[in-house]
Amino acid sequence: MTYRLIALDVDGTLLTDEHELTDQTIQTIREVHDQGAHIVLCTGRAPDSTLPLLQQLGLEGTMITHNGAATVYADERGLTLVNEFAFTLPEIESMLGYVRKEGIHFDVCTSFNMYIERISEYEKQMYKKFLITPKLVTDVSELGLPIVKYTLFGQSDILDKVQKEWEEQQLYGHLRMIRSGDLFIDVMSPAANKGNALKALAASLEIDPSEIMAIGNYYNDLEMMDFAGLGIAVANSPEGVLKAADAVTSSNNEQGVHEALVKYCL
Asked: CATH for 5-84+192-264, among 3.40.190.10, 3.40.50.1000, 3.55.40.20, 3.40.50.300?
């Protein structure tokens, strides 16, 4: 089977735990690209913190960011918004009240910017690791901007409690809440996921789902793995993701993306 589009999750999949791209993985991705396949990074990151990785790969093209909420095209002219699934700040006001009261760190994102109300050294290190420079404001509720993602960051046991309570109370209303990592909860438009964004991109490129390979490691990758003709999980994925995958490759620290591309594309 020839795969014309390769969708790659970034953190926990493409990158090692040290958030690095290995030289061998870069070389293999370049080989697959040079054979004619579209390489699409599909990530929870914002465009600005995804672009350096695309550049490190020596590529340009479409990036699916904010877990599918914003699709962006990158070339030598810069970043162009292709599509976004947005919502308004009043829709998350009850959730903002909850995290402010509990002292849980959060940020809100437009397609190209991130806003926070406070920051400690712990959060600074997290943002630095993900190549993010958030904008500090007094009250995000006063921004008056369309939002594509509202994210909580904290210890896993704290977020376990938040997830349980918000699900019981349906505090997120019609919006969609997902656990995008042990330390992250994202709230987005119900239409926003990597699968829907990948579906729209494939249609624009006239690529059939059977010609798509998707590699991921977490629950926010399930929709794109399901949409793709071949959905692959890296070995460090949770059990639920491993069971949902069509195939399993080595972990992110063992160059699982390289291994899968060699096996199925080269």
From this structure: 3.40.50.1000
